[in-house]
Model the fold of this input.
Amino acid sequence: MSSAVVNGLAGAGGGIIAQIITYPLQTVNTRQQTERSAKKKKAGSGGSDASTLFQMLQLVQTEGWGGLYSGLKPSLIGTAASQGIYYYFYQLLKNKVEDVAAARGKKGLGDGTVGMFSWLVIAAVAGSINVLLTIPIWVLVTRMQTHTQAERKVIESKRELLLKEISRANPMDAHILKDRLAKLDSEKPRPYGTLQAVCNPSIQFMIYETLSKRLKSKRSGKRFPKKNITAMEVFLIGAMAKLGATLVTYPLLVVKSRLQAKQEIGRNAASRYTGTLDAILKMIRYEGLHGFYKGMGTKIVQSVLAASVLFMVKEELVKFVVLLVARSRTLLLTRSNK
Done:
C-alpha cells in the first residue's frame, strides 16, 4: 500500500472523528455567518451578539437536538471524501517534491529539504483538486445547516404581511385573515432533506509542515535521536496552523457560506448575491466590516479543535498502519525462513 493511499485513508478517518466531535459548533457558526444584520451607526449601539452557548441552547429549544446535527450525514460523506482526496494528492505531490529536493541536494543545488513556498504550492494544488471534486457536497451541507433559519425568515415575512392586511381589512375579511395567521403561527420550519438539495488549507498546511520540519530538525541532534513527533505535539502544531489559517482567511469563509446558503434568507436586494464580488460589496455597504467577522470566535474554537483532532488521529493512524505493515513483513519473513 502506497504512502499516499495510507495518508488518504487516515485523513478520511481522522476527518470523520473530528467532524462528529465539533459538528454542533460548525452548525451554529454557519448560521452566524449567514445571518444578516444592519450596519451599526454608533460604536456600542445595539445589543451585543448572543454567545455561542446561548445560540446552541436556543437551537436545541426551537429545533431539538437534531438541529445541532442538521446535515451531518452528507457532512460525514463530504469530510471523508474531502480529507481522503486532499491527503492522497497532498502526500503524492509531497513525495515527488521531496524526491526532487533530495536529488537537487545531492548535486549541491540546495539543502535537500522542501521550502515554505513549495509547501504552499503543494497544499494549494491538492486543495484545488479537492474543491473541484467535493464542492457539491459542501453546498448541500450548508443548505441543510441554514434551511430552518431561511424557512423561519419566510414565515416571519408572511406574518408581517398578514398583520398589515388585517389592520386594513373589514371585520369579515379580518376574521378570515386571522384564521390564516393562526395557521401560519402553528407552522414549523421543515427540515431540509438530503435529496433536496483553497486558501485556508493551503496556509494551514504551509504552517504545519514548516513547524513540523523545525521540530524534527531539533530532534535530529544528539540529544533527541528520535525524529518522530508525539501525538500531543501534532495536536498543538495542528492547532497553531489552523489558528493562523483561520485568522487570515475568515472573511472569505463568511462570503463562501453566504453564497452557498439558500438565497431566500431575507427578501430584499441587500440579502441576495449574484457572485463573490457582489457579496463583498453588499456586505461592506449594508453591514460594514463587522459582517465579515460574524461568528469568528465560534469558528476559531471549532476549526482549531477539529484540525488538532484531525492531525493527531491521522498521524496516529498512519503510524499504526506502518507498524502493522512492518510486523506483517517480519512475520512473513520468519515463516519463509522456517
